[in-house]
Design a protein that fits this description.
The complex is a heterodimer. Chain A contains 19 helices and 13 strands. Chain A is an alpha/beta fold. Chain A has 2 domains: 202 residues, Periplasmic binding protein-like II (D-Maltodextrin-Binding Protein, domain 2, 3-Layer(aba) Sandwich), CATH 3.40.190.10; 194 residues, Periplasmic binding protein-like II (D-Maltodextrin-Binding Protein, domain 2). Chain A has a 5-stranded mixed beta sheet. A 4-stranded mixed beta sheet of chain A has the order 8-9-7-10. A two-stranded antiparallel sheet of chain A has the order 4-5. In chain A, α9 packs across α10, α9 packs across α18 and α18 packs antiparallel against α19. About 4% of the residues of chain A have low confidence. By secondary structure, chain B is mostly helical. Chain B has 2 domains: 48 residues, no CATH class; 228 residues, Orthogonal Bundle (MetI-like fold). Chain B has a two-stranded antiparallel sheet with strand order 1-2. The chains are: A alpha/beta, B mainly alpha. At the A-B interface, α3 and α18 of A face loops of B.
Chain lengths: 412, 317
């Protein structure tokens, strides 16, 4: 009697266990890039996960990037998936602070791959000493330039600030605008500001500024704008940049009316689509300004998160750990033409990816980007200030005072 | 309540009303029944949100709920309004709204003159009329896009014209002093067409006898227009002014398409600034956005009440 009771409980328990795994086997993923290559890369990675975990029933929803930015605010609380894509740095802060993302520090600590191969990028995934997501891709920023124009005018890749200024002057004399930019949507100007700041003052100042610990009227920040003005005086940027998007700003670059572009690696595909060949474009790191300063780089990452309301957190953790594996990250990033955050992953053999990897893997620090490191409201005001400075440089003091005012309000 | 309690019982028996309550009050109830769907939806989708957004404007809220479903909003009373008073961008938007309001009204006389010009019998007149009306039919988004191409100093028509005269073309949408005028000008194009069509229908109803009588008294040209035609067009003018004022205050599409409020916020208007603060990528300050919406609401309320009041006065006469 007693034995049969035990047996009965055991079978009942096993059945219950089976039932729960069947339930837990559903994994819903919301991803945010429907463009052909990112979609293919992501879907290939998911297929591998399915092959390795045949008992898990994976459902993938792929949404448009901009739509995802709005939708995530609803689905995290109303109908949470088990995995969602989002951005690290300050962009994840509102969700972390509202308790809508799952703390996955345990996974970072227990998974040997995550705990050893992601040292460089770990800080950007961290808030309050806890990790909240797993990065799957990132890309470098730097200066893309028209190699054919540089060669024709006898200009070498600038390594220092003076060389960059000299190159700009030479280009200007030759009738070519040194740098193209389109600031209609503001963030491009933040790329220039970030690099000038990282090279003039370094990584710490970038972080302190975006964390609200340094004022904008600080002499160190003012120095950044002095450098910016020097660049503008040396021939500087295309006119009418305030009316152009970053894609519009490619036109002068492609036509040979401008020779450099401070941009992220995603621009290469558009440059090639516009008819430039591999031989015509090349990449160099943003030149040194303060000699001897450790070199930090902009390298915005994309990541995967588990919503706090996810139903199947166990398999979601399994999925994140799987996506962090070096082979998966190599394959995925080869498809999308970006860099794998896993330091043990292999890098694609495209020349920009190779140079990008050399740039980022040797950097002393990785900044996400001004608009991801600073809170949204500060970022918006700051980027408007940068744009205004580029059009009316003599208003600098007024702009910086205004930014101080916004800063005081945002970080109270 | 029973029938016996009603005063009707005191009248002679033959006149006792045996119909049901509904049958007796049919005439009074019917309009409400017909209005009910509209009233219900108007209340849910228009009236209630007005109070909701006024209520939200007293909070600081990023639009997110906590994981346990509670709202993360924080009561700050009039804090958002205090912040508005010290916000340069708010004053820029307010100033631009005034500019819109004043300059947009140019659509009324412009529409009138085009209507007078088109109000003649020539072969194919209907085609010309529809061509003039065309800009109102196409979407504001398209109008904005076309004009931002016109204004492009590199390949737009404005650049070509300036270069023809040997001048450096201005970057209209990139210049803080020109940008609002540029957008208003683009907005005027469809608005003039709208006013024109209002006046064209109005001109159909101008009584020929009065024009004839005016002619006999030697009225012609401006005097004819001012003393005989215009007074008869008063209803059309009224509607044209109302739609133009409201159109100016609601201006949003053009700004979103042409500049997104830029460069550095100098072409913002209240409606776009509200969107930017509450719903754009760098916004999600629901409380602050609602405070802007509330201010805009009261400005509109002022105009709309004036219009309703003057309409009411007209009806009374």
């Amino acid at each position: 009697m007693y034995k049969s009771l035990i047996r009965a409980t055991a079978t009942f328990g096993a059945a219950a266990l089976l039932a729960t795994t069947a339930f837990a086997g559903d994994l819903i993923i919301n991803f945010d890039d429907p463009n052909p290559k990112p979609k293919a890369g992501f879907e290939a990675a998911v297929e591998k996960f399915k092959a390795a975990n045949p008992d898990i029933n994976v459902t993938v929803n792929i949404n448009d990037r901009e739509a995802h930015k709005t939708a995530i605010r609803n689905f995290l609380s109303a109908d949470a998936p088990d995995i969602t894509s989002w951005y690290p740095g300050n962009r994840m802060a509102p969700f972390v602070n509202a308790g809508q993302f799952e703390d996955i520090s345990d996974l970072w600590a227990s998974d040997p791959n995550l705990s050893t191969s992601f040292e460089a990028i770990k800080p950007t995934m961290t808030i309050d000493g806890k990790q909240w997501g797993v990065p799957y891709s990132y890309y470098q920023w730097g200066i893309y330039y028209r190699k054919d124009i540089f060669d024709k005018m006898g200009i070498a890749e600038p390594k220092t600030w003076d060389e960059l200024l000299a190159a700009s002057k030479k280009l200007k004399e030759g009738g070519v605008t040194p740098i193209t930019i389109g600031t209609k949507f503001l963030w491009t100007a933040a790329g220039v500001f970030d690099y000038l700041n990282l090279r003039t003052n370094g990584y710490e100042v970038h972080n302190d500024l975006t964390a609200g610990k340094i004022k904008y009227t600080d002499p160190r920040i003012k120095e950044v704008f002095v450098k910016w003005k020097e660049l503008m005086d040396a021939g500087g940027f295309v006119e009418n940049h305030a009316t152009m998007s970053w894609q519009d700003a490619l036109a002068p670059f492609v036509k040979g009316e401008a020779a450099m572009y401070v941009m992220g690696n995603f621009a290469v595909a558009s440059m090639k689509d516009a008819g430039l060949t591999e031989d015509q474009i090349d990449f160099f790191q943003f030149p040194e300004i303060t000699p001897g300063l450790p070199r930090a780089e902009e390298a915005p990452a994309d990541a995967l998160f588990i919503p706090a309301k996810a139903k199947n957190k166990e398999d979601a953790r399994k999925f994140l750990a799987f996506m962090a594996q070096p082979e998966i990250q190599s394959e995925w990033n080869k498809t999308i033409g970006q860099l794998p955050p896993n330091s043990k992953a292999a890098v694609g053999d495209d020349k920009f990816i190779q140079e990008g990897f050399a740039t980022v893997s040797t950097a002393s620090g990785l900044a996400q980007f001004y608009d991801r490191d600073a809170p949204a409201e500060m970022a918006k005001a700051g980027m408007e200030g940068f744009q205004e400075f580029m059009i009316k440089p003599d208003r600098l003091d007024k702009i910086l005072e205004r930014l101080d005012k916004v800063q005081a309000k945002v970080y109270k | 309540m029973s029938v016996t309690a009603l005063p009707e019982t005191s009248v002679p028996g033959s006149m006792v009303d045996n119909r049901s309550w509904y049958q007796r009050n049919r005439l009074r109830v019917a309009p409400w029944l017909f209005l009910a769907p509209a009233i219900i939806f108007f209340t849910i989708y228009v009236i209630a949100p007005i109070f909701q957004s006024i209520w939200t404007s007293f909070f600081e809220w990023n639009g997110l709920n906590n994981a346990d479903g509670t709202s993360s909003a924080k009561w700050i009373g009039l804090g958002n309004y205090v912040e508005l008073l010290d916000d340069e961008d708010f004053y820029t938007s307010l100033y631009n709204n005034v500019l819109w309001l004043v300059l947009y009204l140019l659509a009324v006389p412009a529409g009138l003159f085009i209507a007078l010009f088109l109000n003649q019998t020539v072969t194919g007149m209907r085609i010309y009329k529809s061509l003039f009306f065309f800009p109102f039919v196409i979407s504001q988004v398209v109008v904005g896009l076309i004009f931002s191409w016109f204004y492009n100093p590199n390949f737009g028509i404005v650049g070509e014209v300036w270069r023809f005269f040997g001048a450096a073309p201005p970057s209209i949408l990139g210049d803080e002093d020109l940008v609002t005028y540029g957008i208003i000008f683009a907005g005027l194009w469809p608005q003039i067409a709208y006013c024109m069509i209002l006046y064209l229908t109005g001109l159909n109803n101008v009584s020929p006898d009065q024009v004839e009588a005016g002619r006999l008294d030697h009225a012609k040209g401006w005097k004819m227009l001012w003393y005989v035609i215009l007074p008869q067009l008063k209803p059309a003018t009224f509607i044209a002014v109302v739609v133009t004022v409201i159109g100016a205050l609601r201006s949003f599409d053009m700004i979103a398409i042409m500049t997104q409020g830029g460069p550095y916020g100098s072409s913002n208007v209240l409606s776009y600034y509200m969107f930017e603060q509450a719903l754009s990528e760098f916004g999600f300050r629901m409380g602050y956005g609602s405070a802007i919406a509330t201010v805009l609401f009261f400005i509109m309320l002022f105009f709309i009440s004036y219009f309703l009041w003057s309409m009411y006065q007209d009806e009374k006469r």
